[in-house]
Write a structure and sequence with these properties.
303 residues, alpha/beta, 9 helices, 26% helix
Length: 303
C-alpha cells in the first residue's frame, strides 16, 4: 500500500512489448510469387523509436528458405530501409521482389541513424534483427542458418562488421558490400590530398562516432570492419567503383587485403568508371552488380 492507501502502480505494465510476440503484419502481394510483410517491429530500443523490418518472402516455398538481409545506406544519417539506391528505383519488379522470386527471404531493417545514437548502436541493431529473424524463423519459414548480409555504402560498412552479428542466433554464411567504408582511420589517406578533413565534426563519420574522427581514434578503430576481420569471417563479395568520390575504392581494397591476411579469398571487383551509388555505370553494368550479388548469395546458401 502507498501512503495514501492506494495500491502501488504495477510497473511491469510500463515495459515495452516483446517484439518476438507481436503479431506479424498482414501480407501484401507486390509481385507474382512474392509475399510482403511491411513494417514488422523487431526492436524497441530504450529512448528511441520502434525499429521495423520489411520481409519479402517467396509465396509458395516448399520449406524454410535462406535469408538475405539488406542494410540500406545514407551515410548513417538518412536512408530508407527498402531503398537499394537510385539506379534500382525504376525496376519492376524491384530488386527485393526478384530475390524472393529466386527463392530467398529478404529482410530490410531500419537501424538507428547517427542523429539518434552513435556507434555501435547501428551495428547492435543489425545484430538485433538477426536475432529476431532467428526467433521468428518457424513463423516465417526461414532457414537462418543460411543468412547473407548485403549492404550498400554505410549499410555495407555495417554488414561487414561481422563481430557484432556472431552471437545473434542466425549464421552468416556470406557478406556483400557495395562501395562501403571499411577503415575509417584511413579515409583521409585514401582521398586526394586535402579532400577529407578528419577534424571536421560535421563529416558523416564524425557524426557516426559522436565527435571528430581525429579525436575519436579508438571509436574509429572499433567502427572499422578491417579491425575485426578474423579467420571465422564468412565469404565476401566486395564491389566498388574506381571513380568513387565519396568513398574511395581503396577502402574496399583495404578490406580485401585484411581478409586475405586472415586466410580468406574475398571476391573483390573494382568497376572501371563507377562512382558512388553506381553513378557512371551503364544500366547493363548495374544489373551485372545485382546478378553477381544474387549468384554469390546462391553459392553461399546452396540455394
Amino acid at each position: 500500500m502507498t501512503d495514501n492507501g492506494s495500491e502501488p502502480f504495477p510497473l511491469p505494465l510500463l515495459a515495452s512489448p516483446d517484439p518476438a510476440e507481436l503479431p506479424l503484419p498482414h501480407p501484401a502481394r507486390p509481385a507474382a510469387g512474392v509475399r510482403l510483410l511491411r513494417g514488422a517491429v523487431y526492436g524497441i530500443p530504450d529512448g528511441s523509436r520502434p525499429l521495423a523490418v520489411d520481409l519479402w518472402l517467396p509465396e509458395d516455398a516448399a520449406g524454410p528458405v535462406p535469408v538475405v538481409v539488406f542494410v540500406h545506406g545514407g551515410g548513417w544519417r538518412k536512408g530508407l530501409r527498402d531503398d537499394a539506391g537510385p539506379r534500382f528505383r525504376h525496376w519492376r519488379p524491384g530488386p527485393f521482389a526478384r530475390l524472393a522470386q529466386a527463392g530467398f527471404a529478404v529482410a530490410c531493417p531500419d537501424y538507428r541513424l547517427s542523429g539518434e545514437a552513435p556507434h555501435p548502436a547501428q551495428a547492435d541493431d543489425l545484430a538485433a534483427v538477426l536475432a529476431w529473424l532467428h526467433t521468428r524463423a518457424a513463423d516465417l519459414s526461414l532457414d537462418t542458418g543460411r543468412t547473407v548480409l548485403w549492404g550498400e555504402s554505410a549499410g555495407g560498412h555495417l554488414a561487414a562488421l561481422t563481430r557484432h552479428t556472431r552471437a545473434a542466433g542466425a549464421t552468416v554464411t556470406g557478406c556483400v558490400t557495395w562501395y562501403a567504408p571499411s577503415d575509417l582511420t584511413g579515409l583521409a589517406e585514401d582521398h586526394p590530398e586535402g579532400a577529407y578533413d578528419p577534424n571536421d565534426p560535421a563529416s558523416r563519420e564524425s557524426l557516426l562516432l559522436g565527435g571528430a574522427l581525429a579525436e575519436r581514434t579508438e571509436a574509429a578503430c572499433d567502427a572499422s570492419p578491417v579491425t575485426h576481420v578474423n579467420p571465422d569471417a564468412p565469404p565476401f563479395l566486395i564491389l566498388h567503383g574506381t571513380d568513387d568520390t565519396l568513398v574511395p575504392a581503396r577502402q574496399s581494397v583495404r578490406l580485401a587485403e585484411a581478409l586475405r591476411a586472415a586466410g580468406h579469398r574475398p571476391d573483390l571487383r573494382l568497376l572501371t568508371g563507377g562512382n558512388h551509388l553506381w553513378a557512371g555505370l551503364s544500366d547493363e553494368d548495374v544489373e551485372d552488380c545485382y546478378l553477381r550479388t544474387l549468384e554469390f548469395a546462391r553459392r553461399c546458401t546452396s540455394a
